[in-house]
Amino acid sequence: MNDENIEMETRNMNDKCDTNSHTEGVSSVLRDNIYGCDLMLCLFLTALQSYRVDTCLRPFPSRYIHDSHKDVDSLRNLCDKIPSLETISKYPRMCSVEILELLKWLLCQKDHLSLRKVNFNKVKVPTTIKKCYQPYYTYEVIYPSKTEEAWQKRRNDRNSFLAYHGSQLDNFYSILKVGLQHNLSGDKALLFGKGIYVTSEITISMSYAPFGLSWKNSMLGNKISIIAVCEVINNPEKVKCKAEKYTQRTIHGDIPDKYFVVTDSDMIRLKYLFVYKESTVAVIESWLVRNLMLVLICLYVFILFCIGFFQGPTWRKVQRYLYNELLSDVLT
């Protein structure tokens, strides 16, 4: 056996060991928490497909970074081949080494947070939520021990409260991995000052959390919306709000009611994620809202038509015709 054959055999053995290692790790986490893995993968793929991929996909898999260039196309091509997690949990060896390696990087790192599906009724929400606004799925954000200890140390003896934060679907991967940042506050930052905006009213957050296309093989549906329930450390110097008796906590008096502006990202973290599926009713309602002016114009034209029809000669002819038909039926 020459050196070239020995090198090839060694490489094949290493690849086989890598495959076994990746398969075991991915299979284990899927058996334990397939719904949490599904949502994490959904958020990763949504960020990957976003036109703002450079901003949304943080961190980016280092395997696909070459000379400081992110090979987005190769990563997208690979992800197009990922089967459903249910299929992978049953037949993990059907996946390539590259897919298993990516899934292990995304789902199996012990020092990273994870998501776990929980019962909505066990969640302490900031304010009572009407049944029509309750999520289809509820996830708790589970932090590694070091991150949890750092949060508790930062909190110290201060109280904390829960509040809602809405954002586009493609933002949530980086929000989970990097944390809420000021630069994701959008237009609100221009209106009310720099900071992370949260609210005590879920309907307010919903207007900032439109439905977005998710992963086609997801168990959660291919079009979802997410509202984050955030835990906020109640630090008057870094958490601003509108309240007459707390004038020192306002910013130029411009903050709307039920809003809080967190000026330090260390004072806030994600506690739960509320996931909503887009139903047929929701699609119709959403279309009506987006096209309200068109609907009103059509309704106005229809009313004018009805007025003209019932007051014009055509309606009298129809009445005479119906009367004659009814009379002939009675006589016969």
From TrEMBL:
<feature type="transmembrane region" description="Helical">
    <location>
        <begin position="287"/>
        <end position="310"/>
    </location>
</feature>
<keyword id="KW-0520">NAD</keyword>
<protein>
    <recommendedName>
        <fullName>Poly [ADP-ribose] polymerase</fullName>
    </recommendedName>
</protein>
<keyword id="KW-0812">Transmembrane</keyword>
<comment type="similarity">
    <text>Belongs to the ARTD/PARP family.</text>
</comment>
<feature type="domain" description="PARP catalytic">
    <location>
        <begin position="146"/>
        <end position="233"/>
    </location>
</feature>
<feature type="domain" description="PARP16 N-terminal">
    <location>
        <begin position="29"/>
        <end position="107"/>
    </location>
</feature>
<keyword id="KW-0808">Transferase</keyword>
<dbReference type="GO" id="GO:0016779">
    <property type="term" value="F:nucleotidyltransferase activity"/>
</dbReference>
<dbReference type="GO" id="GO:0003950">
    <property type="term" value="F:NAD+ poly-ADP-ribosyltransferase activity"/>
</dbReference>
<dbReference type="InterPro" id="IPR041400">
    <property type="entry name" value="PARP16_N"/>
</dbReference>
<keyword id="KW-0472">Membrane</keyword>
<dbReference type="InterPro" id="IPR012317">
    <property type="entry name" value="Poly(ADP-ribose)pol_cat_dom"/>
</dbReference>
<keyword id="KW-0548">Nucleotidyltransferase</keyword>
<dbReference type="Pfam" id="PF00644">
    <property type="entry name" value="PARP"/>
</dbReference>
<keyword id="KW-0328">Glycosyltransferase</keyword>
<dbReference type="Pfam" id="PF18084">
    <property type="entry name" value="ARTD15_N"/>
</dbReference>
<dbReference type="InterPro" id="IPR051838">
    <property type="entry name" value="ARTD_PARP"/>
</dbReference>
<keyword id="KW-1133">Transmembrane helix</keyword>
